[in-house]
Design the sequence.
């Protein structure tokens, strides 16, 4: 009996259509003006990657695979953060997000922004004062302590961005409506998610949030529920609106992004 239960549980986990959706992240080299900060910059990158690898739903791209892209980026980029001309390069290596980092040696501030490669959208932006960790020559006084600090900050970022439940199911069309209420919607899952008929999903509106620390990230606001009615293919589905028909109609017609997560 126990054996059969375990086999059933493992099959459910392995076959969960949403569990296989991951976010591929590339941590760029830290942009610095002082060469003596390079060892510390490498330490930052390594601990960021290490922290990311400990989280489900995340794939960290191998730095060896991205070496040529990174070298080209360092040669071409200006003093500003990455702009749209680098997006196609990052798409080619399969990155969903890029962690862009700049160190201000004068103020001892590390600035991190997370960029969505597909949309060129800034998902997160924050400054970190790291002067207390640095010696006068910009080396780290206590590498293990500093590394743990970097990993903790990455953990907090992922918690704020709710990465563990991020999926890529989006409402792309209102296939049926009455007045100003949505009755049916068309869902699109760009990576394929194998939804089944009668599966219930919660609809969220993603909005930009600014915390007291001036960190920008996406916040999900629940607006309704839908139920899968018809499967077109592994990427396109028709769903019936069960709750929040007015909110879904108003927000979608106002060009807001509406995402769905299994209930």
Sequence:
């Amino acid at each position: 009996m126990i054996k059969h239960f375990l086999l059933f549980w493992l099959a459910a986990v392995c076959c969960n259509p949403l569990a296989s959706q991951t976010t591929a992240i590339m941590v760029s080299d830290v942009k610095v003006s002082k060469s003596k900060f390079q060892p510390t910059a490498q330490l930052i990158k390594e601990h960021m990657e290490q922290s990311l690898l400990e989280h489900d739903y995340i794939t960290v791209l191998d730095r060896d695979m991205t070496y040529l892209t990174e070298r080209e980026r360092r040669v071409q980029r200006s003093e500003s953060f990455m702009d749209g001309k680098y997006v196609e390069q990052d798409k080619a290596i399969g990155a969903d997000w890029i962690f862009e980092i700049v160190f201000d040696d004068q103020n001892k501030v590390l600035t991190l922004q997370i960029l969505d490669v597909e949309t060129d959208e800034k998902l997160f932006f924050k400054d970190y004062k790291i002067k207390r960790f640095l010696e006068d020559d910009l080396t780290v006084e206590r590498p293990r302590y500093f590394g743990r600090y970097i990993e903790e900050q990455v953990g907090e970022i992922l918690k704020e961005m709710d990465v563990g439940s991020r999926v890529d199911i989006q409402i792309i069309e209102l296939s049926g409506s009455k007045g100003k209420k949505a009755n049916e919607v068309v869902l699109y899952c760009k990576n394929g998610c194998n939804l089944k008929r009668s599966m219930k999903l919660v609809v969220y509106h993603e909005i930009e949030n600014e915390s007291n620390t001036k960190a920008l990230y996406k916040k999900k606001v629940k607006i309704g529920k839908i139920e899968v009615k018809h499967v077109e293919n592994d990427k396109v589905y028709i769903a019936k609106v069960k709750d929040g028909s007015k909110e879904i109609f108003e927000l979608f017609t106002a060009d807001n992004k509406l995402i769905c997560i299994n209930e």
Observations:
- The two ends are 28 Å apart (CA to CA).
- The first strand starts at residue 23 and ends at 27.
- The first helix runs from residue 2 to 15.
